[in-house]
Write a structure and sequence with these properties.
single chain, about 80 residues, mainly beta, SH3 type barrels, 5-stranded antiparallel sheet, about 15% helix, about 50% strand, globular
């Protein structure tokens, strides 16, 4: 166990209320505050922004992303290093 993480969904639980980076299958990235997720990794982001070429391109606000479109989810603070 590292940082209280024993199962994969523990990572998402620890990221609730924090900014995350989401890589999608269509080569787009989204950044926003993780509000909720389910066992299918469907997620809800608040203050979501579409990122293209490492630049914020479009603000989409509250958004729902289907789990089957997601490649990975990372804490945004880690992605900016």
């Amino acid at each position: 166990m590292v940082n209280g993480i024993e199962r994969p969904l523990d990572v998402l639980n620890n990221a609730k209320g924090k900014e995350v980076l989401v890589q999608l299958k269509n080569n787009k990235q989204m950044v926003g505050t993780l509000l909720a997720f389910d066992i299918h990794i469907n997620i809800v982001l608040d203050n979501a922004k579409e990122i293209i070429d490492n630049e914020s391109k479009r603000s989409v606000g509250l958004t729902f992303l289907r789990g089957d479109t997601i490649i990975f989810i990372s804490p945004a603070s880690m992605a900016k290093q």
